[in-house]
Write a structure and sequence with these properties.
seven-stranded mixed beta sheet; about 210 residues
């Protein structure tokens, strides 16, 4: 299959891991300026803000780290803890690696068992991974397994897939491992995105909780 032209609407209509790899291979070099800046992508700032305001500490695992947008905002907001990142795209991770924001960057699938430090991660964050055409709620098990007891989670879930893909049921299924759950509704993009993408008005739910 020929690669779709890299853009938001194409990314949210992907249907296979192979298509996702092709898309992000072609998008990696222009992602920060051609997507994040052009569409005023605010989700990383919302996730970082929620995590820091709730007292998040490290070591931190960034799920779907991409080019490092979330880690950059965490650093800008004062996070000094070690941050490890995982992503399926080697091309996106190459961009993130050049920013020197992470302790480690690993090619990994969040729906499979994850690497973790002794004792587990104290923070697990994710911006933009749980959305149309990307990762579903099957990732909750591996993420919880990688976390220490009491670890703080701040995960964005596109509001359009929250019930459609069963994220609500997954949170209920893992209720014994989840404490103090909050769902915080936020806009994903700023006004600059209007008229540039069909999904410009999309919103996300920040799932903020601790591992019980």
């Amino acid at each position: 299959m020929e690669s779709e032209k890299p853009n938001l609407d194409a990314a949210l209509s992907l249907t296979s891991a192979e298509d996702r790899l092709r898309m992000y291979r072609d998008w990696a070099a222009s992602y920060d300026a051609g997507f994040a800046a052009d569409l005023d992508y605010r989700l990383p700032a919302h996730i970082a803000g929620a995590f820091m305001a709730a007292g998040g500490t490290g070591p931190i695992l960034d799920i779907g780290a991409g080019t490092g947008l979330l880690a950059a905002v965490l650093r800008a907001q004062g996070a000094t803890a070690d941050i490890d990142g995982i992503d399926l795209s080697p091309d996106m991770l190459a961009i993130a690696r050049a920013k020197s924001l992470y302790r480690t960057l690993t090619l990994a699938d969040v729906t499979q068992p994850l690497p973790k430090p002794p004792g587990g991660y104290q923070g697990i964050v994710s911006s933009g991974t749980f959305t149309h055409g990307h990762v579903g709620p099957e990732a909750f098990g591996p993420m919880l397994d990688a976390a220490a007891t009491g670890a703080l989670f701040a995960l964005s879930i596109n509001a359009g897939v929250y019930t459609a893909l069963g994220f609500d049921h997954a949170l209920d299924a893992h209720a014994a491992q989840i404490a103090d759950l909050q769902l915080i509704d936020v806009p994903i993009y700023g006004p600059a995105a209007l008229g540039k993408a069909a999904h410009a008005k999309d919103r996300a739910l920040i799932a903020l909780f601790r591992k019980a």
